[in-house]
Amino acid sequence: MDVDDFTIDELQLISDLDSRQFGFINLEDCSNNWIRDVVQRAIAALQNIIILAHNNNINENISPNSPTNKVKQELPEANDMPMPASWHTDTEFITGTKEEKPSIRDDEKYHDNKETIVHPETYCKLGHLHLLVEEYYEALSAYQKYFKKKRKSSYDLAFLYGLGIVYFHFNEFRWSIKTLQLLLYLNPNFPCANEAHLRLGFMHKVLGDYKSAIKHYQLSLIDAAPCTLTKQQIRFHIAHLYEVQKKYKVAKEAYEQLLKERELTLELKSVIYRQLGDKIIKYKLFLYKFLKPVVYTRLGWMYHCVEIFGERKHRQSHAILYLQKSIEANPKSGQSLYLLGRCYAGINKVHDAFISYRNSVEKSEGNADTWCSIGVLYQQQNQPTDALQAYICAVQLDKNHRAAWTNLGILYETCGQPRDAFACYLNAIKTTGKKQHRETQNINKVLLQRIQFLDSQLTQAPMPSITSRRRQLCSIEEAWNLPISLEMSSRQQQHLHSSNPTHRQIGKTSAQGPPPPYPNSTPAKRAKDGNQTQFQTGNRPTQPPLFLTQQQLQMLQYLQQNQNNLNSQERILLQDLSNQYQFMQQYQQNCFQANNQESITGKNREISDQFEKEVRVMSPPAYPIMAKSTSDITENKIESSKESFPEQSDLGVSDQELQDILCQKDLASTLTDDILKTFDGDNIDLKDADSRDSLSNKLSNVKGAFLLDNEFIKEEILKNESLYEYYSDEAAKEYSMFSIRMDSKEVMASVKNLSLNEPPPPCSILNINAPAPSPPDCPPQRLTREQLLPPTPSVHLENKKHAFSPQLQEFCLKHPIAVVRGLAGALKLDLGLFSTKTLVEANPDHSVEVRTQVHQSPDENWDTIQAKRVWACISHRSHTTIAKYAQYQASSFQESIKEEREKGIQMSDSDSKDSLSNASLSGKRKKNKGGNKMLRFGTNVDLSDERKWRPQLAELQKLPAFARVISAANMLSHVGHVILGMNTVQLYMKVPGSRTPGHQENNNFCSININIGPGDCEWFAVPDAYWGGIQSLCDKNCISYLHGSWWPVLEDLYKENIPVYRFIQRPGDLVWVNAGCVHWVQSVGWCNNIAWNVGPLTARQYSLAIERYEWNKLQNFKSIVPMIHLSWNLARNIRVTDTKLFELIKMCLLQTLKNVMHTLEYVKSKNVVVRFHGRGKNEASHYCGQCEIEVFDVLFIREQEKRHVVHCMSCARKQSPNLQGFVCLEEYRLSELCQIYDAFTLHKPQTLPQSSPTNH
C-alpha cells in the first residue's frame, strides 16, 4: 500500500476497519460516501501490492525446482483477482496459462518465504474490506488465502467472525456454525459476540435445533452491546420458538407481553395478532422495521388453531379480531388478509373469505397458498372451471405446492378425468421434501395408495368410446395457458398506467415455463400406430398461427381487468384479442372432438362408460380414511369423491396442517428469511445440509474472483476442521510463563503481571496452547466385512473369586465394550429385588419417565410411513407411576400371548419354520406391514433415595469395587454431590422394542448395565475412535449429535468403514461400556435394567472426560459432570501414582487457579465487592444461568434479584460491562486453593522389600 496516497486519518480508519463493523456501517448511506471511497481505494491498493509481487516473480528467470519458484507458484494468479481493466496488459498472465495453481503442501513448505513477499495479514485485511462493501465472493477468497498462509499459526478473531458471516451469507449454515462456535469458545468476550449468538440462533432455528436456538437468542438478548436487531425483535423470535415447540401458553404470554411494549412497532404487532388468527407456510414478513403487526398475527393464528385457548366459537372471534387489528396496523399485508380469509372460510362465511382472498392477491399476488384456498372455495360452490384456474395459478406460482396438486387431482377425479388426476397426484408426491412431519407423511401414504389404484385402473381401461360424454374440464396442458378470468382477478385502478402492462397478476411468467408433463409411465391406452393424439401421448401440441401467444394472453387479461378505463386504441386491441381468443377456444374444442372420433370405436362405448362411472366411485380395498381436521372445506362435499378419496380438507392447506407445517424443521426457516436479509440483503435459499460442493461450485463459476483451486476450497477450507488447530498469539505469550512445575506463589506472581485492561480469557482445562477440541478422524485402515462385524469381548464367571479378580477389571478396561456373563449367579445377586412386582410393592407411586416410540426391528429405523430408512428416532416424553407402567407392561405381555395364539391357529408349524429360517438367512427383515405400532418405554426411574430403596442398593454392594456405584476408586464418588443417573442407580422398565437411542455417556465416563430380565436386550456399539465418523453422519442426516435422538443405519456405518459390535444381553449379564464408546440398545423381550456410571482412576478416562467437557463448551452443551470441581476434590482426596494422570489433573488445577486469581484481580480493579460465601455440605456445583458453563469459586449474582441466579464473568459483563449491580461471591478462600494446589504432588508407589526365603 502506497502510504503517500492516504492521509493519516485515512490510514487510521483503514487500520480500525475489520469484520466487526459489518452491519453497523452502512456504506450505501450518502453520509458514509467518504468511508466507502477510502475502503475502495484501500482494496485497490492492497490488490496492487499482491499483483506487483506476483509480477516481480513472473519476470524473474528462476529454475523450476528452486524454492523461489515455489514462492512464485504460491502467489495468486491474475485471473483469481478482480482487477481494473487498466491492469490487463499481459494476456497470458491474465488468463493464467503460464502457471499452475498451488498445492497445499508446497504452501506449508515455503510458508516463511512467502510471508516476505505478501504478508498474510494483507489478505485478512483485504477480506475485511471486501466484506464491508458486501463483496462476499471476493471476501471469502481473500479469507481463504489468509487461512491457507496462516495454517498452524495463530488465529485472528476478526477473521473467524468475518469468515462465519460470509458462510452465513451463502447459507452454508453448518460451516458458519462451526466457525462462530469456535470464535465464541476462544473468546466469549468478543465485541460482536451478540451478533454471533444472533446468527447462531437463526441457523439453529432453520436446522430445527430449537433448544440451541433459544439459548443463543437469550445470550444475545442479555448482551448490552449494540446489535443489528432490537431487544423486542429478539424476544419475538424467542416467543415464536416456544410456539414452534408447541408450548402455546408460554408463547401466548410472551406475545402478549410484547404487545404491552410502547416501543413495539406496528408491523410486529400485526404479525402477533395474525398468529393468534392464522398460520402460513411462506412466511415473508418485514418484522425488522415494523413489529406490532407481526405480534398481532402470531396471537391471532394461535387462537384460531390451538384448542387449549377455549371453545371454537370463542377462539374464532378472537382470531378474527386479532387479524383485523393486524390489517389495521399494516394494511399492505397480503398474508394477514389471506389468513383472515381462512378464518372466514372456517366458519362458512364464503363471501367474506373470497373478498379477503381477492384483496390478498392484490397485496401479495405471488402467494400460491391464496390461490389454492380460492380454488377450494370455488370447488365448494360447485364451480369446477374456476377452481381449476385457481389451482393452476397456484402451481404456476409454486410448482412444488403439494396441496394445490392434490386438490387439483381430486377435482379432476370428481369430474371423471382419472388420467389428469393421476398426473396431479404424481406431482404432489414428487414435490414433497425430504423432511416430513407426520401429517404430511400420512397424506403421502394416502396419495400413494390412490396412485396405485388409478394406475391399475388406467392399465386395464379400454380405449374411450366415440360416444363417451365430453370432458367437463380441459387437460392440465390446456389449462396451463388459459388466461385468468375477470371474476377471479381484481386489480386496482392505479395499475392501469403501470410501466409493465404485460405483467400477469399471478407472478412472473418467465418463471412458469411449460406445464409439468404427464409421467412417462402413465399406462393409458394408445391409439393405433401413427394415430397417437395429444391426449394420449401427453406431448405438448404444436400451436397453429391463430393461437394467442403467452404475451398476448397476458395483454388480454390486463385489458379485461381495466376495460372501463381504456382509450380507443386499447379498446380496438381488446376486441381483436377477444375475437382471436374465441377462435382459439373453438379450434381446441373441434380438435378434441376430432381426436375422440378417431380414437374411440363404437365397440368399446359401453365399456368406456362403465369405466368412467367406476373410476368416480370405486376405491381400493382397505383404503384408510384420515381423520377430519378444521379446514376451508365445509360439509358440502362432492358426492362422487366421498367413497374414493379422503376428504378434501385433509389434503388441502388445512388449518391443522398449516399449524403443524410451520412447526417443522424444513419450514421453520420461513420466519427467519427476512431476518437474514438484515445481514446480507439477499433472499435466502436454503440448501441441503449434506451438499458440500454447492459453494465451491458457485465460486468456481465466478469470473475474476480471487479464488483458490476448487479441491482446496472443498477439502480444506469449507470443512473447517483445521480451524481448530488455531490458538491465540496473546494467549501463547501470556500463558507461556505458566507451568505445572510452579507453586502457588509463583503462579500468583505471574498473574500479577497480566493486564487488567481486558477481562480474563476463558478458562480451558486442557494443556496450555492446546487446539480447540474437535471430533477425531476415523482410523484410516480399511476394514474387511468380517472386521466390520467384530466379535464382542465377553467373559463367563464361574464363581465369586473370578468376579473379584483384578484380571476382570483389566479385561473390561482394554476393550471398548465387554459382556460379563453369569455375574448374578457367581455373586448370588438377588435380581428379584429389581423386578416389576417388587418395585410396585415397594413404591407404587414412584415417578417414571415414559418415552412413546415406534416398534421396529432392532437393525432398522424407518420413517413414519415406512418409505425409507432414516437416522431420526422419534420419541415423545410423558410421565406416569411405577404401578401404572407395571399394568401396561403386564397387559402388553398378555396381548402378545393372545396374538401368538391367533397366529398359531392360522399358521402351520412347517410354515412357521420356513418363514423364520428365510428371515434369518436373508439378513434383512421386512417392514411391519401392519402399520406403525406404538410402544411405551419406562426410563430414568431414580433409585437414589436410600430410604425408599435400601434393599436394592445394599444388594449392589456385592459387586466388585470397580463396578460399584460408590467406591474410592470411582472418580464420580468424589464429586461430592448427587448426579442423577451417573453416581446413582437408574432403572429402565421395558417392553419389546424399547429403544435407548445412540449416544456416548455423559463426559465419556464408563457405564455399568445389568439386565434384570426376564427378557433379553440387543446391543450395538462402536469404538470411541470412530465417534467422529458417527458425528459426521449425524450432520449429514441433519440431526444434532448431542441434542438429537438418532438410531444409526448399519449400512451407512459400514460404508464409512465403521465397525459395529452387536450382541445379546441376557438376564444376569453385566455390560461394561468403556470410556467414549458409542452405543444404542433395544429390548427384545419384557425386561428391566439397572445402570449407572463409573470413573476409573486412569489417565485415559480423565483425558477423555476433560476433552468432552471442552467440546461440550464449544458446542454450547451443558456438561452435567463438573470437571473442575471434581478435579479439585480428586486433588484433596487421592494420591496419584500415574505420571500422566497427575500431569492432567495438575494442569486443570493450574488453569483454574490462574483464572481465579486473574478474575479476582480484575474484579477488584472494577471496584466490585468480593464477599466470601463458602460451600455447604453436599452442595451442588454451580453453572451459569445463561450459558450453562460450570462456574468455579468466583460467582456473580445480581444484588437486587430476589432469586439469585449465578452468572459467569462473561455473561455478567454482557449485561454490565463494568459489573455494576453485580456482587462477587467467593466459594473458597484463595489460601485454601493454594494449599490444595501445592499439596497435590506425584506419589511414587513404595516397593516392598523382598524377603529372603525361609525354610519351614
From TrEMBL:
Could you tell me which residues the TPR repeats occupy? 120-153, 368-401
Q: Residue ranges of the JmjC domain?
A: 948-1111
Query: InterPro entries from the entry?
Result: Corepressor-Demethylase, JmjC_dom, KDM6_GATAL_sf, KDM6A_B-like_C-hel, KDM6A_B-like_GATAL, TPR-like_helical_dom_sf, TPR_rpt
Q: List, as start-end ranges, the regions of compositional bias called Basic and acidic residues.
A: 899-914
Mainly localized where?
Answer: nucleus
| Classification via Gene3D superfamilies | 1.20.58.1370, 2.10.110.20, Cupin (2.60.120.650), Tetratricopeptide repeat domain (1.25.40.10)
* Molecular-function annotations in GO: chromatin DNA binding; histone H3K27me2/H3K27me3 demethylase activity; metal ion binding; RNA polymerase II cis-regulatory region sequence-specific DNA binding
Pfam families from the UniProt entry: JmjC, KDM6_C-hel, KDM6_GATAL
Coiled coil stretches, renumbered:
none
Q: Which cofactor does it need?
A: Fe(2+)
Q: Record's Gene Ontology CC terms?
A: MLL3/4 complex
Q: What biological processes does GO assign it?
A: regulation of gene expression
Report the subcellular localization: Nucleus
- Sequence segments annotated as region (Disordered): 490-545, 899-935
Q: Does the keyword Cell wall biogenesis/degradation apply?
A: no
**What residue spans carry the Polar residues bias annotation?**
490-512, 530-541
Supply the alphabetized keyword list: Chromatin regulator, Dioxygenase, Iron, Metal-binding, Nucleus, Oxidoreductase, Phosphoprotein, TPR repeat, Zinc
The entry's family comment says:
Belongs to the UTX family.
Q: What is this protein called?
A: JmjC domain-containing protein
